[in-house]
Specification:
The chain is mainly α. The chain contains 17 helices and two strands.
Length: 393
């Protein structure tokens, strides 16, 4: 598989208007932090961070239809692994990152094997992910080597220059690291969607029984999905550890963290490439905006963010069940309409039907298209007609 060729094809086959918009957005994101104060810079870091985590979760749910509500598990394991190696043994974060990814992939393999081998899916799989996250949180509450419930703290070094080797530096350095993560997550997701893995993932998401009948090894590819998603999420955990410099099991493994991860793609558009980015911007802006407004008025309402998250998700389900991005993309001409392309979804709207079901936390994502031709199994190396993307001229 030629990675460079595929990445170039992902970009060149996109609609011209989409390519232009992406380049403009990237240019703006590269220069915008230079004119922001420290607070606004921290808000932008949060937007990019949750956009990346949303992409990681999207690989598992949006592409493969496996609903996880315990993704905080991989954030916490990635954060604690890299931070403990750095603090106790002086292992630089870039090497600790490799170990963290390995630990998270191993944990995902255990969860996936237990679930998929014994036919656990839908709501029961979601509950299993929550259970593992909670078990791990309780374990780390009593794990004295990393501080237990009292928290684990990294040395804070006030340096005038950025120390990329040890991930020590100013918020500006962490902004560009978050931007690199977000771009990496976007490009990797686009590449996965275009390749054979992406087609098999979507075949399983749309109709697992049909995919199995067509010869797709559903167990194998669902394992790939959870492993890739966990590995990506681990990188977000490493970033979190060295940006925040403190870790508490209650915060990093808690279900609220998992909700924050899945909220961005759920509101932006599950299964889409740009949905997690847009959703992260909307959710973070609303969250920080309401917090600042209440602080200005002199009020302090416990749990206001959770209330806001629930209201935002409820409104999204009621008025935009497929998320904000698919409707916005069609309106702005970033993708062909269903009638024009003859598809269930265009490039910017892949998996929107699955997003409607996932946002309401139902069993698994469903879609109207199947992954097989009416003539029979899909041959190796070919793409099902229902999932072919039609680039716009």
């Amino acid at each position: 598989m030629n990675l460079r060729r595929d990445l170039i094809a992902v970009f060149t086959e996109a609609p011209r208007r989409s390519r232009t918009a992406l380049l403009i957005l990237l240019a703006v994101l590269l220069v915008v932090p230079l004119g922001l104060d420290r607070y606004l810079l921290s808000v932008m870091i949060l937007v990019l961070y949750f956009a990346y985590l949303g992409q990681a979760w999207n690989v598992m749910m949006g592409f493969c239809g496996q609903l996880s509500i315990g993704h905080a598990l991989y954030v916490g394991l990635g954060a604690y692994t890299s931070a403990a190696l750095f603090q106790h043994f002086g292992v630089i974060p870039w090497l600790g990152m490799i170990v963290a990814v390995g630990v998270c992939v191993l944990m995902a393999t255990i969860i996936g094997w237990l679930a998929f081998r014994f036919g656990i899916s839908g709501t029961y799989f979601a509950l299993l992910t929550i259970a593992f996250a909670e078990f791990t949180r309780i374990g780390f509450d009593h794990f004295g080597w990393v501080g237990g419930s009292g928290g684990f703290f990294l040395r804070v070094v006030q340096a005038d220059r950025a120390d990329l080797l040890n991930l020590r530096g100013s918020p500006l350095m962490f902004y560009y690291l978050a931007l690199a993560l977000a771009v990496f997550g976007f490009v990797l997701s686009a590449w996965l969607l275009r390749g054979r893995l992406g087609f098999y993932f979507r075949a399983i998401r749309d109709n697992e029984e049909a995919a199995r009948a067509a010869g797709v090894d559903t167990f194998r590819y669902k394992m790939y999905a959870i492993q890739v998603s966990a590995g990506m999420t681990a990188l977000g955990g490493v970033f979190f550890a060295f940006y925040q410099n403190n870790l508490f099991p209650e915060q990093i493994f808690g279900i609220l963290r998992s909700i924050e991860i899945l909220l961005a793609p759920s509101i932006g558009g599950i299964g889409t490439l740009f949905g997690p980015v847009l959703g992260a911007a909307v959710v973070t802006a609303l969250s920080e905006g309401i917090t600042q407004l209440l602080a200005t008025l002199g009020y302090e309402i416990p749990g206001v963010k959770q209330i806001l998250y629930g209201v935002a998700l409820g409104l999204s389900i009621m008025f935009m069940p497929h998320g904000i991005w698919p409707a916005l993309a069609r309106r702005c001409g970033f993708t062909r309409t269903r009638e024009e392309s003859g598809e269930i979804e265009g490039p910017a709207g892949t998996g929107a039907a699955a997003g409607a079901d996932a946002a309401t936390a139902t069993a698994t994502a469903t879609a109207t298209a199947t992954a097989t031709d009416a003539r029979g199994p899909v041959p190796q190396g070919t793409t099902p007609r229902a999932n072919r993307e039609v680039p716009r001229a």
